[in-house]
Structures
1.
Amino acid sequence: MKCRLILLLLLVSYNGYSQGHYNGSSFNPNDYFAPHEGFIIPVWYGYANMNYYNSSGKKSDQIITSQGGDPAVLNIKQNVKTHSFILMAIYGGKGKIAGANWGMMIIPTLNSPTASIALDYYSQQTGSGTYNFTNKTVGFGDMYIQPIWLSWKTGDFQYALNYGVWAPTGRYKPNSLDNGGHGYWSQNIRAALKYKPAPNINLSIAPTLEINHWQKNTDFKEGSHLTVDAGGSYLLNMRGDEVGIFGHYTQQISDDNGTEGHHASDQIAGIGAFGSYWIIPKKIGAMLRVTQNFSAENRFGGLAIQTGVNVLIPNKH
């Protein structure tokens, strides 16, 4: 059975204040579809260098927040650098469910406070002034669980349906520098389509709807977001080594609720490229990804780099 190198970097949260958990371009173009039978254990490191962009899409040292309806202008220290460590457990099941290949995944997170946590902190300040985010601790973040991962194949086309939730397992306390999570649940609903125009080429598109819930110990619920991911990959050889490009666009599609928080719609886009190489064919693989974000409004954006290895353990027949 043909194996694929899976990359799922949902954990490098480089977005803005309470703007959901899912980041566009977290998947490679082939990775919306159920994996091969057996276990995949990826171990990854992610680095991001981010800056805040205001509602006009301009880099800014000021964040305008709304606490209880009263505006506050915060002067912030730009250039938020983040580090994330990712250990995942992915399972591709035997047989089929409703004619589909199937799988599941669980992803705990370990990270330094991310740019989204930084903007969370900034946005909860109640008065104007200068605020510096200097926390450099490392702790557990929120956990992603995807119990539904189905894909069907017809000719040169492949279809997928995914459902997952982000559980608020990371530490969260309002107005704290030590937060590692967002303090709320999020649901991710995704459909995906892949087309194979040639034996070595794959093209895919995948819209994701993220629905966010009320934040713990605050009167705030972030609006829903719609992200459209698209990309392509090229198979270099029979070993399975691969290169590809990807891109995404994320837009907030419903209003925030509650009396606390930022209450400003956000958006972001990004493009990137990846390359994968089998150190031991079909058993141990390495990958490098680079993503550049742009068109950010009311959130952090910038450069993100991820690298790591994947270990594949196929089912015994």
Note: The domain at 38-311 is CATH 2.40.160.40 (Porin).
2.
Amino acid sequence: MNILVVRTDKLGDFITALPTMYVLKHHNPKNRIVACVAPLNKELALACGFIDEVIVDDGSMPVYELSKKIKDAKIDASITLFSNTRVALAQFLARIPIRIAPATKIAQIFYTHKLKQRRSEVKMAEFEYNLQLTKTLFPDINLEYKKPLLEFYDAKDSYGNFCKEFGIVKEVIAFHVGFGGSSDANWNLDEYEILIKEVLKQEKYQVILTFGPDEVALCAKMKIRLKNEKVIFYISKNGIVNFAKLISNFKLFVSTSTGTYHLASLVGCPTLTFFADSLFASSKRWKSVGEDELQKHFMIPHAQDERNKLFDNILEKLKTT
């Protein structure tokens, strides 16, 4: 069966879709999994052995053009994990016989099977809601998946070259101070500076600050703040897969709940992650797809005194890492 899985939003959202594609492939290895993704996720999708083909949708191509791409893939069934009217209509026009999606808004009229999930109630994590949709197609499907979900045979070699280039001889704790997507809680740069310097005091680890290719200005700010410290500043310019290979070898990845957190968990790196103090943006909804015991989650309170208490708690945890 040729199965289209649609998730065309940001990096973290796409990673929550990967367990769905994995279980569909492993339910029957003859299933051909076609992922419809945003351009920024194409490289990562192509690196997943359980994805057979990738359709890129930049969100601006005409519906008929997207529909033709889908039709050319000869899809038997589709599962749309997060829908909008445009992608729903494209699948309808492509005449996919079985079209599955959450029952949301007007887009649901274009699907043959709609599942009421009420994700706003956060009864499970986002990736678990995604997995639930596969039961509509295969009621007996096993929803278990391997962890880490994504591994690279040459990750150690890539990391070894990275360590030689930057003179790294200790285990790495990485801080990613930027954020995007649905993340709406983070420490400010003053607070991150304190956390980073606390780790540096221990002299046990190499501290690396990581930045996306569009965070050059943020990197420059942190260089000024930490100009006298033994910190490596790394702007990821060699693609998301190369970045994932490096992260998979880190001791710890510290960040807010953004795409790089999901990437770190995907490849098995322990994470220390900050979430907003609301159900919508909480760890209950946005925990990542890796092992639970490797994820440490903290909700940043709105009240300043409670925020200060949590910050002190995080500081203590970093002292004993």
Note: The chain has a mean pLDDT of 95.
3.
Amino acid sequence: MEYDNTGTNLSDGDNLIGLGQSAIDLDYALRFVESNEDLNKYKVFLYGHSWGGYAVTYVLNYGHNVAGVVARSGYNNSRDMLVEYGSNLYGDWLKLLSPYAYIYEKIKFGDAIDKNGVKGINASKDTPVMLFHSKDDDVISLDNSLLIHKDEFVNPDRIKTVLLEDR
């Protein structure tokens, strides 16, 4: 099963709302699967790239029964990604706006914005997770990657990290 984030492709919504919306949308998609008798008999595996890599790790904060996760080029939190992307477009001075980006997202998404991918991975405790990231990713830097947090993971034996280059 695949879903589109709010405001993209075949989904409802007039716009993207914000990066944090992806995890909220995925949470609702998983709730649907769990409540549907035709679907809830299957194991759930999550795969996401970039924005989706953030969503599949973040959604683990909600306690869904997920059999495994693969996140490719996922970032840890939406605020830092928003600031990084804006800085790439408009210059490093935009990093000064990081506290305002947090306030903006807090207003939009409430307490949900205080969770992130690392917290989700740690909350899942037993879910196997595989993280991929390329050193030279020109959209999501290694500094914002989930990969750099590998020392923070609870039960790290279940987590495989793969650092690539030129991919």
Note: The helical segments are 21-35, 51-58, 78-90, 98-109, 117-124.
4.
Amino acid sequence: MNGSLTAERRTKTILSVVLGVICVIYVLPVVAVIINSFKLNTFVKTDTFALPTGEMWAGFDNFVKGMTFGNYPFWNSVKYSVVITVLSTILILICTSMAAWYIARVDSLFCKILYFLCVFSMVVPFQMVMFTLSYTADQLKLNTPYTIPIVYLGFGAGLAIFMFVGFVKSIPLEIEEAAAIDGCGPLRTFFLVVVPMLKPTMISVGILEIMWVWNDYLLPSLVLDLEKYRTIPIHIQYLKGSYGTVYLGATMALILLSIIPVIIFYLTCQKHIIKGVAAGAVKG
């Protein structure tokens, strides 16, 4: 008995050490960004992991330079990132939750095929469709911050529908039947009965979509008119001087500013992700 307890403790200790090392590896890039955002540009390359002390210290000059560099206002990039993220998340949550409810409740061949197509879309690499997508978005005038959420809806629907369908199947059908007996139509049943019960999964999907859209670089760079609209990741990419010189200190400063809201948002809402994923995994 004591031998088995000792072996179990040893296993837990080894797992803790291994997971601790993995956590350190994942945190190192973030630490490097924080350290280098306060260094002079010349020391970012030569002393990457050294603390910004003495002659290395740049203070907040990197933040000022990053926000004022070039002829494109940084706050415009912040505005467009917020607009795209908020509109995309709202559109994905509303459309995919309604579609998932229909798929889960209507037992037909069409719904089964639609569900498997949505799940299959999660494994299709973006690189396979990006050139066709860019051309299509340009032809349909989806190349503005106010229309690109439609494109994000197409790419975010797969995961969202997969999670929503799993949760809806765990909701007793009798609740919706009781609402129908009381005179609720499909829309009232969905918004007054189903949506409140979908709250854990909605929060989880919303958090994941916000993190994805906020940090996305490739899709906006392909679809948007970059002379008019730039998100924060695109703005950071333009921190270049003459002859290809990159202002690494200013770049690190803007990267830090861009990840702070996401980190705070994720740490605040991470418990909802666990609840929503667990709820959506009750039935497949």
Note: Residues 2-36 form the longest helix (35 residues).
